[in-house]
Write a structure and sequence with these properties.
Length: 215
C-alpha cells in the first residue's frame, strides 16, 4: 500500500472512530456540556461517517474486524439520520402554519431572541435590530451587567422587565412592551443557570405562558 493510501485509510479509521464515539456519548444520561454538545452537530457527524466509509472502502488493504466496524458505522449513521429526519421538509409538520390577519394585532405578539455573546461589546448592532424589528418581547442571553447597562436604553419602550445578568455566559434579560404577569427567575438546571417563567398579557387580554432558558 502506498503512503498516500495508508494516510487515507488511517484518516478513515480516525473519522469512523470519532463518529461512533460522539454518537454514543450523548446516549449517556449526563448533563456535562462536553457530552451534550454532540446533540447538535448531527449533519457534520453524518458527513464524517460517510467520508469514513468512502475512505475505508478504497481498495488496497483488508479491513480488520470489517463486519464489526461496518456494522458500527452503519448503526451510527442510521441513528443520526433518524434524529435529523424530523427536522427535514419531508417529515410531517407537528405545528400548523400560522394564519394571521394583517389587522389582527390583539391576539398575536412577536419575540426577538438574541444571543449577544457576552464578551462582544458591539451593543449598537443589537439595539439596531430591536429598533428595526420592533418586537413586543426581547430576550437577550449571554448578558452580563455591562449588557444590561447598554440595553437599559430601551426600557422606556419596554417597561416590563425581568433580568438575571450573570458573568458566566448564562445571563438573561427580558424586556416587554406587554405586561408580564407572575414573572420570576428560577434556577432549575444548575445553581448558576437561570430560566425565566411567567405570562405575557396580549392586547386582547389573553395570557400566554412564557418559559425561557439558555441551553
Amino acid at each position: 500500500m502506498s503512503t498516500f493510501l495508508f494516510f487515507l485509510y488511517s484518516l478513515g479509521l480516525l473519522l469512523g472512530a470519532l463518529g461512533i464515539v460522539v454518537t454514543l456519548l450523548p446516549l449517556l444520561r449526563q448533563t456535562a456540556w462536553w457530552i451534550r454538545v454532540f446533540d447538535f452537530p448531527r449533519l457534520q457527524i453524518v458527513a464524517g461517517l460517510l467520508v469514513s466509509g468512502l475512505l475505508l472502502a478504497l481498495p488496497g488493504r483488508a479491513l480488520p474486524y470489517a463486519p464489526l466496524l461496518w456494522g458500527l458505522l452503519l448503526a451510527a449513521t442510521g441513528y443520526q439520520l433518524t434524529r435529523i429526519w424530523p427536522y427535514t421538509p419531508l417529515h410531517r409538520k407537528q405545528v400548523l402554519d400560522a394564519r394571521r390577519s394583517p389587522t389582527d394585532d390583539a391576539h398575536h405578539f412577536s419575540i426577538l431572541v438574541t444571543n449577544v455573546l457576552m464578551y462582544n461589546r458591539d451593543a449598537a448592532r443589537c439595539l439596531g435590530l430591536i429598533r428595526e424589528y420592533q418586537p413586543d418581547v426581547v430576550l437577550a442571553v449571554e448578558t452580563d451587567d455591562w449588557w444590561l447597562s447598554q440595553l437599559a436604553s430601551i426600557t422606556p419602550d419596554y417597561p416590563h422587565t425581568c433580568h438575571a445578568p450573570l458573568p458566566n455566559t448564562y445571563g438573561m434579560l427580558v424586556f416587554s412592551r406587554l405586561p408580564l404577569v407572575e414573572k420570576e427567575i428560577r434556577f432549575l438546571l444548575e445553581p448558576d443557570i437561570p430560566s425565566f417563567h411567567g405570562r405575557v398579557q396580549l392586547r386582547s387580554g389573553t395570557l400566554v405562558n412564557l418559559h425561557f432558558v439558555h441551553p
